[in-house]
Design goal:
Rossmann fold; 243 residues; six-stranded mixed beta sheet; ATP hydrolysis activity; membrane; binds adenosine-5'-diphosphate; Polar amino acid transport system ATP-binding protein; ABC_transporter-like_CS; alpha/beta; binds magnesium ion; 38% helix; 9 helices
């Protein structure tokens, strides 16, 4: 699904990603863990070209995203297949829940307004917020806003979903409702990449875990390998600290 080869990203003198290579296969649930500032968000943002890599290649379903010959329109079309959910929800505050969800599908000509509304209603049902369809984001709890943000990303019918610490900005009592929605997605065989500090969640749902530190993948493996039998000192130190 996503092929990442020797990915590099620098901001001026700051080399944030120093050559990351990995492959995300269809149906995989890949958890990315690592210390703050290690480049996890940058990695995720490069995957859908919210950030332009400074080196290396990324391809999506064998189509190179990092090919300089690609036109903006082609890049946008590829990106539509990659949904993203952020720590801070990023809903449009002046739009209702429904308007937030139908905006992109209509604008990008993915669906007619009638179809988009129908899809939005179904998605809100799925995330348990059918009764909030006309609410404004500011009148929702953090957990509800994040569930709307997930519904909004799903409205584009993506083939991959990227989550960047989707529960880190939430009060503890709201973490579970969001993780349950993501768990449902896992069970629907969605391909998922999730940056998370929820180690128990990563243990339960991930098919693979990447430990990133200082812009490199230090270690990757099954949850059992990474959490119970880490091979590298840096992985051990990190896991000891968060316990
Ligand atoms: P993480 O998500 O693992 O906490 P980030 O990817 O957010 O790490 O950040 C990694 C490094 O990249 C940090 O040193 C951060 O300051 C830097 N960085 C991230 N985004 C930008 C940006 N837009 N401009 C300049 N530096 C950035
Ligand atoms: Mg981050």
């Amino acid at each position: 699904m996503l092929n990442i080869h020797n990915l590099q990203k620098s901001y001026g003198e700051n080399d944030v990603l120093k050559g990351i290579s990995t492959e995300i296969k269809k149906g995989e649930v890949v958890a990315i863990i690592g210390p703050s500032g290690s480049g996890k968000s940058t990695f995720l943002r490069c995957m859908n070209l919210m950030e332009m890599p400074t080196g290396g290649e990324i391809s999506f379903k064998n189509q190179p995203l990092t090919d300089r010959a690609l036109k903006d329109a082609q890049i946008n079309e590829l990106r539509e297949n990659i949904g993203m959910v952020f720590q801070q929800f990023n809903l449009f505050p002046h739009l209702t829940v429904l308007e937030n969800i139908i905006l992109a599908p209509i604008k990008r000509n993915k669906q007619t307004p009638e179809e988009a509304i129908k899809t939005a209603e179904q998605l809100l049902e799925t995330v348990g917020l059918a009764d909030k369809i006309d609410a404004f984001p500011n009148n929702l709890s953090g957990g509800q806003q994040q569930r709307v943000a997930i519904a909004r990303a799903l409205a584009m019918n993506p083939e991959v979903m990227l989550f960047d610490e989707p529960t880190s900005a939430l009060d503890p009592e709201m973490v579970k409702e969001v993780l349950l929605v993501i768990q449902d997605l896992v069970e629907s065989d969605m391909t998922i990449v999730i940056v998370t500090h929820e180690m128990n969640f990563a243990k339960e749902v991930a098919t693979r875990v990447l430990f990133i530190d200082e812009g490199v993948v230090v270690e990757e493996g099954t949850p059992n390998q990474i959490f119970n039998h880490p091979q590298h000192e840096r992985t051990k130190v990190f896991l000891d600290k968060i316990d």
